[in-house]
From TrEMBL:
Its EC number is 5.4.2.9. One of its GO terms (molecular function) is phosphoenolpyruvate mutase activity. It comes from Winslowiella iniecta. The lineage of its organism: Bacteria, Pseudomonadati, Pseudomonadota, Gammaproteobacteria, Enterobacterales. The keyword Isomerase applies. Pfam families: PEP_mutase (PF13714). This is phosphoenolpyruvate mutase. Belongs to the isocitrate lyase/PEP mutase superfamily. PEP mutase family. Keywords: Isomerase, Metal-binding, Pyruvate. InterPro entries: ICL/PEPM (IPR039556), PEnolPyrv_PMutase_core (IPR012698), Pyrv/PenolPyrv_kinase-like_dom (IPR015813), Pyrv_kinase-like_dom_sf (IPR040442).
Length: 300
């Protein structure tokens, strides 16, 4: 098997803007390890006389935490997560969007921006919450506090001021719908964040119908025709790529599926070997050792 084409950090960082300019809507998927990223990099499928592939990686704080068996509470700092990103970049070429949670203290965020930008990351996403991070899909079942608009706008401005290159992007993630604060609050924040310098807006929702993100997209597009709009359709997973594209979304992030499927598969393997007393029943669900070795260029 041939090795992957190499790419510089600068070329990789630029490539997200380039693919956004060439496509109306792109697909990004969570990659928590070099092998998961390599699978994403190589996966292409033929659909209706067209070849489809993912356009880049999502570095998820949730799946990075799960990989280390740690709680998803911003325990892993950017420097720790960067080690994993460097390893992913060693064997891939596609751009990466980085989940920065709340961004932490501004004094720390400005250094994280520089480090991530220097490493070749194309975009970071910061969410407008404060305090101890809780997973957004938990909604109001746990205590979550949204930042005030003025404070978060200041964070955006400071993050933008600290970047060096023109191609690096900072997206503002709005948690108003997650916290049941309503569409008007979400739209007001979106307008303010774009004015503060956000390069893109991510609207998050935990409602399964997808109706509120549809309405948000319609009204956001009336205000900002050209600002990239991002969604994470974990809760409304039935909505097809084409539907989200037609709503006006430019970046669709499948935020945790590679890790969730890996956990499910590993748990099933462990249970089956114990209950059956041998590994034979699960061999059909595993690639062979030879195939596994051949998957990595240079192994065989």
């Amino acid at each position: 098997m041939q090795g992957l084409t190499s790419i510089t950090n600068c070329e990789r960082r630029k490539s997200l803007k380039q693919v956004l300019q060439s496509k109306q809507c792109i697909r990004i998927i969570e990659s928590h390890s070099p092998i998961s990223a390599m699978i994403v990099e190589k996966t292409r499928v033929a659909v209706d006389d067209d070849y489809l592939e993912f356009d880049g990686f999502w570095s998820s704080s949730l799946t990075d935490s799960l990989l280390q068996a740690k709680p998803d509470i911003e325990k892993l700092d950017a420097n720790f997560r960067l080690k994993n990103i460097h390893n992913i970049f060693d064997v891939t070429t596609k751009p990466m969007i980085y989940d920065a949670d709340t961004g932490g203290k501004i004094e720390h965020l400005i250094y994280d921006v520089k480090a991530l930008e220097r490493a070749g990351v194309s975009m970071i996403v910061i969410e407008d919450k404060t305090g101890l991070k809780k997973n957004s899909l938990l909604g109001n079942d746990v205590e979550q506090t949204q930042d005030d608009i003025e404070s978060f706008c200041h964070k955006i401005k400071m993050a933008k001021k600290s970047q060096i290159t023109q191609e690096f992007m900072i997206a503002a993630r709005i948690e108003s719908l997650i916290l049941d604060k309503g569409l008007e609050d979400a739209l007001m924040r979106a307008d303010a964040y774009v004015e503060a310098g956000a390069d893109a807006v991510l609207i998050h929702s935990r409602k399964s119908s997808g109706n509120e993100i549809r309405e948000f997209a319609l009204r956001f597009r009336a205000m900002h025709a050209n600002v990239p709009l991002v969604c994470v359709p974990t809760s409304y997973s039935h909505l097809h790529y084409q539907e989200l594209k037609e709503m006006g979304f430019n970046i669709i992030i499948y935020a945790n599926h590679m890790m969730r499927s890996a956990i499910s598969s590993m748990e099933n393997v462990a249970k089956t070997i114990l209950s059956e007393g041998c590994s034979s029943p699960i061999e059909q669900d595993c690639i062979s050792v030879k195939e596994a070795l051949a998957f990595i260029p240079g192994t065989i």
